[in-house]
Amino acid sequence: MKKQKKNSSEIYLTREIMMREIISKLLDTDLLSGEVENKVLKEYLIYGKTYKEIAPLFKLTHFRVKQIVNNAFAIIKSRLSRHENIFSTLKKQQTEIEELKSSIAEKEETENQFNSLPEETQKLLSEKIETLPLDVRIINSCIKNHDIFFLRDLVKLTRRKFAGMRNIGKKSINEMDEFLNSKRLTWEMNV
User: N or C: which end of the chain has fewer CB within 10 A?
Assistant: First the structure.
């Protein structure tokens, strides 16, 4: 038990020393314009003195000491706010970079799968929708309503998503199923 208390008090002491060092470094950057103001802050922040204890040391009123401390806190808050904005922006950019990396990895995987297909299948998947022997309704729905221009883009869809497309009915779904089966293709191909 005593060992734990000693460790926690050591931790507290270490934190206290670290805080004093940080505050001292912060004050060394001339947080406020005047030398007296910085000395007042040191007395308040590092040595933990009260306004009334500090005032006679610098021939100031305790209200002036309070004003100096409050001004310093406002400046610190402003600086921290700027840093917080920078960190927030950096975090957003890092998230965007991770998303882009993920997207690139997915596209590379898709390309690798496409390149692993037989050349005949690659050519077929690279054909434009409008050149395929499909019903005009399917072709128009793909091109005009959904910006699907190649068979490769169409086979990435699920059967359900294709069925939910505008102007696609049961007959069009059956026709597309037959076409894909005849070419040994399936829905939801990752190509």
Answer: N
User: Global pTM?
Assistant: 0.49
Q: What is the pLDDT of residues 151-187, one digit of tens each?
A: 999 999 999 998 898 888 899 999 999 999 999 999 9
Taking the C-alpha atoms of residue 76 and residue 31, their distance in angstroms, rounded to an integer, is 8
Q: How far is CA 146 from CA 13, 53, 74, 76, 162, in A?
A: 66, 76, 55, 54, 10
Residues 6+ away with beta carbon under 8 Å from 176: 134, 138, 162
User: Amino acid identity, residue 45?
Assistant: L
Contact 151, 125 (CB under 8 A): yes
Distance CA 136, CA 159 (A): 19
Give residue-wise pLDDT tens across range 10-69.
776 776 777 677 766 766 665 566 788 888 888 888 788 999 999 999 999 999 999 988
142: exposed, middle or buried (Cβ count in 10 Å: 0-12, 13-18, 19+): buried
Query: What is the spatial distance between Cα 41 and Cα 36, in angstroms, rounded to a whole number?
Result: 9
What would the CATH number be for the domain defined by 2-114? 1.10.10
Distance CA 14, CA 20 (A): 10
Residues of the chain with CATH 1.10.10: 2-114
Q: How many CA atoms lie within 13 A of 179 on its CB side?
A: 18
